[in-house]
Amino acid sequence: MENNPKISIAIDGFSSCGKSTLAKALASHLHYNYLDTGAMYRGVTLYAMKQGWAKDGLLYVEEITNHLDDINLSFERNPETGKSELILNGKNVEKEIRTQDVANLVSPISAIQAVRRKLQQAQRELGAAGGVVMDGRDIGTVVLPNAELKIFMTADVEVRVKRRYDEHRSKGQDVPIEVVRENLKKRDLIDSTRVEDPLRQAEDARVLDNSEMTQEEQFNLALEWVQEVIEKKRNATVM
Question: What average pLDDT score do residues 69-76 get?
């Protein structure tokens, strides 16, 4: 793929649709950079929790907003797994941001305007040069509106609940499936109805419903789309 023009790929969709799994696979295959935008929001959420600004169902929005400059987020490649892991103020917090406690708060914190503006700017800067795959909920509509390929992922709710439940179990986290289901439905509602950059399908996005697809099948379909877009861009460059 080295001689092919590089494109930007934006992947949006509902929680537990496998956005990150697909994005990482495409980035690895194409030798592109992968940016886990969801991890960035989880990082802010974890910081707010540790400071006591997100607890007992309450968010101290003013405190969070006023201290955003104290939050430094970056990614570091794990040499053993080859995966990028989130670094929060110099500390690897990859495991901490994947807990259910963080999951319960990430959507409301992601809805804070100042949080979104700070992270969106960082994401735009990273994606400006192309050769990047980003996944989230507003990538194709807000962060990278000019991305050459936009994919909107969806799946049946119960399929997504089972996937998230199995993910928790694989990590040794004993979370009842009823709790997972309630959290997922709550996140869908918040993400889709929030005032700031709600989750929605970009007009030019290609829909990928993977309710009955394997990871290999969805990867192959997405790769077909990538190759189609790259070929179109190559031909346009030649002309």
Answer: 91
